[in-house]
Amino acid sequence: MEYADILRLIESAQSETDLLDYKRGEALGRQNDQRDALMKEVLGFANSGGGTLIYGVATFADRARKHLPERLAPVTDATVTVEWIQQMINSNSAPRFSDVQSSLLGRAAPVALAGPSP
After folding, report:
1. How deeply is 85 buried, as exposed, middle or buried, from its count of CB atoms within 10 A (0-12, 13-18, 19+)?
2. Which of the chain's ends, N or C, has fewer CB atoms near its CB within 10 Å?
């Protein structure tokens, strides 16, 4: 996923689905509660066969549009790296995902997860 893809999701108001979830960037970090929340989201995707989790996108606050992306909300923890995200996922999930792709694009962090390895 490229940065332009994230912008397109916001501009086209692509709704969250079972395969796509948005999180504010401030939710991704090295604090225990942030790591726990990351793994809860990741394991939720594992149980459903995979999907894309995008940190760095805020959704609307009102109930009617809560599932829609509103704007970029960048990852604020400068110590978060692609390697750290992948290590957290791979070392805390069993079975492991068959494919984990992550990147930091303008401090947005899409994490694409393919289903668990057989």
Report:
1. buried
2. C
CA pair distance 59, 21, nearest whole angstrom: 10
Give pLDDT, residue 93.
79
Q: Which H, E and C letters describe 59-110, residue by residue? A: ECCCHHHCCCEEEECCCCCCCCCHHHHHHHHHHCCCCCECCEEECCECCEEE
Q: How far apart are CA 49 and CA 33, in angstroms?
A: 24
pLDDT for the residue numbered 32: 95
pLDDT of residue 24: 94
CB atoms within 10 A of CB 59: 19
Q: What values do phi and psi take at 2, rounded to 5?
A: -100, 165
Token pair, residue 88, equals 């957290």
Tokens of 9: 């999701």
Q: Is 13 helix (H, G, I), strand (E, B) or coil?
A: coil
Helix (H) / strand (E) element for 85: namely: helix 82-91
Domain residue limits, the chain:
3-114
Ranges under pLDDT 70 in the chain? 98, 105-106, 113-118
